[in-house]
Write a structure and sequence with these properties.
The complex is a heterodimer. Chain A has helices spanning 2-7, 69-72, 76-92, 166-181; strands at residues 15-19, 24-27, 44-46, 53-56, 60-66, 99-101, 104-109, 112-122, 125-133. By secondary structure, chain A is α+β, with helices and mostly antiparallel strands. Chain A has a six-stranded antiparallel sheet with strand order 1-5-9-8-7-6. Chain B has a single domain, classed as Gcn5-related N-acetyltransferase (GNAT) (Aminopeptidase, 3-Layer(aba) Sandwich). Chain B has helices at residues 15-26, 36-44, 88-102, 117-125, 155-158; strands spanning 7-9, 48-55, 58-67, 71-79, 107-113, 129-138, 142-150. Chain B has a seven-stranded mixed sheet with strand order 1-2-3-4-5-7-6, sandwiched between helices. In chain B, helix 3 links the parallel strand 4 and strand 5. In chain B, helix 1 crosses helix 2. The chains are: A alpha+beta, B alpha+beta. At the A-B interface, helix 3 and strand 8 of A face helix 3 of B.
Chain lengths: 183, 160
């Protein structure tokens, strides 16, 4: 995605990548590695997105919007809001009440975090994006201070009565996000 | 315990009041560059956030930040004189910095009037460091102190 962003021209199409990662802890550009408490057998990778430390693994939908933000007339905050609001709307379809918190990026259900967000914008092109917990092993989050917050607990759609299949969630999410961004 | 002030994005109807506060509290003696139309343009600019805190009789504080790929710029920040020392400015700066952190923006830059040591001290407390003095930054007649804050982890302490 970095290569696509570096090489894209004014005519390059926008893309939204939807994927699942193998287990990995990633440290964003603001991350202190003291927040990785006990990585164990899971690799730790420092990457060039904003934000703190998080975990990615099977059963989690990762969304990378590769968007020409200048062409789309889209700023940082509107893009973050669009990603977060799409999670909120998608959760609402299953009767889950999710929300954002002032000063703490991401989407929460009660005190637990459902989705994390961390972006990068270079030459106007966005990459990295959002991770939505669908139906995964949440134990690795206990090995870190997620997003830099000690004791922050995570949750996932499956535990809240929502969908369990990542491909189905990805299809819904992509349609909702594109509609929200008018892509 | 004092409740955290509620920060919200400015609406078009706030532009006149923000411009008035800029003229009275920031640009005094300098002419008026942040007019209502310029504030309105910032409110509509997707690369900008114009954030406000409401008071009982109008706006208590506002801030304007522009987000580039690598650097954000805090263009304006003001707190109504009756509402100072209540952490409103601190809340606004933190709120405006948060999208920059999420977006991997490396640093935030700002300029403060050189004749306002209180403002420079305020930003130093928030982690900003003085970089340079810019002669004639304001209307060609008043110097500015340029300050910057890195939003990146200190990799020097992490490489182990």
């Amino acid at each position: 995605m970095q290569r696509y962003t570096e090489q894209r021209t004014a005519d390059s199409p926008d893309r939204i990548w939807m994927l699942e990662h193998e287990p990995v802890f990633t440290l964003g550009m603001n991350a202190d590695d003291a927040h990785v408490l006990a990585a164990g057998d899971i690799p730790v990778v420092r990457i060039d997105r904003g934000g703190q430390v998080t975990y990615h693994g099977p059963g989690q939908l990762v969304v990378y919007p590769l968007i020409d933000t200048r062409r789309a007339g889209l700023g940082v905050r509107p893009l973050i809001n669009a990603l977060e609001q799409t999670v909120i709307d998608l959760a609402a379809r299953s009767g889950i009440v999710a929300s954002c918190r002032a000063g703490a990026p991401g989407v929460y259900v009660g005190e637990r975090k459902l989705a994390s967000v961390g972006l990068r914008i270079r030459r106007g092109g966005s990459y990295h994006g959002l991770a939505l917990n669908v139906d995964m092993n949440l134990e690795p989050f206990d090995r870190i201070n997620p997003c830099g917050y000690a004791g922050l607990r995570m949750t996932q759609l499956a535990d809240l009565g929502g969908p369990r299949e990542v491909p189905a969630v990805a299809t819904q999410f992509a349609a909702m996000l594109m509609a929200r961004l008018s892509l | 315990m004092t409740a955290m002030p509620i920060v919200r994005l400015a609406r078009s109807g706030d532009a006149g009041q923000i411009a008035g506060m800029s003229r009275a509290l920031i640009e005094q003696g300098l002419g008026w560059s942040w007019t209502r139309l310029r504030v309105l343009a910032a409110i509509r600019d997707p690369a900008c956030n114009v954030a406000v805190i409401d008071g009982p009789d109008g706006l208590a504080a506002f801030g304007i930040m522009h987000y580039g790929d690598e650097r954000a710029h805090l263009s304006l920040l003001a707190v109504h004189p009756d509402r100072r020392h209540q952490k409103l400015g601190t809340s606004l700066v933190g709120w405006l910095e948060k999208p920059a952190e999420v977006a991997g923006i490396a640093r935030v830059r700002l300029e403060a009037r050189a004749d306002n040591p209180g403002a420079v001290a305020f930003y130093r407390k928030l982690g900003y460091q003085e970089r340079e003095r810019v002669a004639g930054y304001y209307a060609g007649s008043l110097d500015a102190i340029r300050l910057e804050k890195s939003l990146l982890a200190d990799l020097g302490t992490l490489a182990r």
